[in-house]
Amino acid sequence: MSETLRTADVAASDADLLDRTVTAVREAGSALRERFGEVVGYRSREELMRALAVNDDTALDILRPSLTRLRPDAGWVEDELDGGALPPGEWWVVDPAEGNVNHLHALPEWAVTATLVRENQPVLTVVHLPLTGETYTALAGGGAHLDGRPLHVSPTADLGLGIVATSQARPDEDEAVVRRVGSSITAMLFDALVVRTAVPATLHLVNVAAGRIDAFWQFAGARADLLPGALLVTEAGGRISDAEGRPWTPQSGSFLAAAPGVHAGAVATLSR
After folding, report:
1. Same domain, 227 and 258
2. Does some domain include residue 97?
3. Side-chain-facing half-sphere of 224: CA atoms under 13 Å
4. Fewer CB near the last or first residue (10 Å), C or N of the chain?
5. What strand order describes the sheet that includes 134-139?
């Protein structure tokens, strides 16, 4: 079989896999939606962690068997705070309740995500927002879509006219990272039109892919936060790098996703 035919076969297989991944992620999202609506109280870190785990387990009880059937030999990553490179092969990188704390507080900004990573490159991703019913998908080389409609990043070419966003990388972050986040927000307040700060990262990144936000940056970060959005933004025509403009990998200490017209300006601002 020629290399061209082998490549076409893999692409067709991945496209079918993406469709079936959508089904599993939407089913998990429906289960979480049924749990949504009332603020979940907690009085200690331990109680908070137990409440978060209940949501995670609700979605994972659906996602793990469904995705394992689709790719029985793929590894499994569900710790949304993990970072760095993965071992060789295929891996499911899953965030069963992206924005879990928001869900507990009856805030609408949360999602379910699943990304297939092959040799440390994301090849397909699904981000489902159960409260709106929106499903964002991306396939390496096949574009990014919202419910089947192609996505394109913003044409904005002036950071001063742009909406930018960042999020908290993780709880209990290193003090140096926290201070860098604060100084970067201050810098962007001078250079951008509007600065948004909120969690989770994935929801900012789907907005970059959809052209609603012009740039998103984050220091530190984790695979499950960034891989889905990285593929969506890339396939929608955006640029991915670290905050200094160098190629981004899961080992990088920073992350920047931007429309091409504002990428250089964002790098300049974040590098000050």
Report:
1. yes
2. yes
3. 22
4. N
5. 75-77, 90-98, 111-118, 121-129, 134-139, 143-146, 149-150
CA angle in degrees (0–180, nearest 5) for 6-7-10: 85
Q: Is residue 36 part of a domain?
A: yes
- pTM over 0.70? The answer is yes
Q: Is 19 annotated as a binding residue?
A: no
Q: Measured between alpha carbons, how far is 243 from 32 in angstroms, rounded to an integer? A: 34
* Residues 21 and 125 grouped into a single domain: yes
Beta bridge partner(s), residue 150: 145
Domain boundary among 85, 119, 150: 150
Residue 80 · residue 95 · CB < 8 Å: yes
Number of domains in the chain: 2
Token digits for 3?
A: 């290399």
Structural domain harbouring 177: 159-271
Question: In 78-119, which ranges are E strands?
Answer: 90-98, 111-118
- Whichever domain contains 239, its CATH number is 3.40.190.80
* Residue 85: other Cβ atoms inside 10 A: 11
Are 143 and 165 in the same domain? no
Tens digit of each residue's pLDDT (9 = 90 or more) over 38-79: 999 999 999 999 999 999 999 999 999 999 999 999 999 876
